[in-house]
Amino acid sequence: MIEALGINHIGIAVASIDQRRQFYEQTLGARFEGIEEVPNQQVRVAFFLVGAPGHEVRLELLEPTARDSPVARFIEKRGEGMHHIAYTVDDLDGRLASLKEAGVELIDDEPRDGAHHTRIAFLHPKSCGGVLTELCEPRQ
Questions:
Q1: Which CATH number goes with the domain that contains 41?
Q2: Tally of structural domains, the chain
Q3: Rounded mean pLDDT of 6-15?
Q4: Contact between residue 1 and residue 26 where contact means Cβ atoms under 8 Å apart
Q5: Residue range 20-26: average pLDDT?
Q6: Burial letters for 31-54: b for 16+ Cβ neighbours within 10 Å, e otherwise?
Q7: What is the 3-state secondary structure (H, E, C) of 33-55?
Q8: Which of 13, 46, 57, 97 is geometrically suited to a Cys-Cys bond with 83, CB 3.0 to 4.6 A?
Q9: CB-CB contact of 67 with 55 (8 Å)
Q10: pLDDT tens-digit series, residues 93-110
Q11: Rounded to whole angstroms, how far apart are CA atoms 71 and 59?
Q12: What three-state secondary structure class fits 106?
């Protein structure tokens, strides 16, 4: 069982953060948090907060940094748009072990480094009703 503590963020694949940023800030009213590069995932990410204080939802724009990256292939196949949903968990290693034992197909058998000082792992959409699912564990 995942036992999510909450939604960590919603990932949105974009060809260019710079081209999409205006929509999120000026049209949606999202608050920009910053840009970070995640080399092991071949992406540049921008985080935005949407919602009233205490009820915010984080949006993560994912821009590929390599033509053959997973996000670049996603955009090529499906176009820009919703890429994944991420949930905050504790004990990511234990969650992955129990999910694997339960027959959930994992993309990542072991956690890896993610943006915003987190450890992350992805679950395959085949096991999640067609939704790419990310588990995030904040580093202490």
A1: 3.10.180.10
A2: 1
A3: 96
A4: no
A5: 97
A6: eeeeeeebeebbbbbbbbeeeeee
A7: EEEEEEHHHCEEEEEEEECCCCC
A8: 13
A9: no
A10: 999 999 999 999 999 999
A11: 16
A12: strand
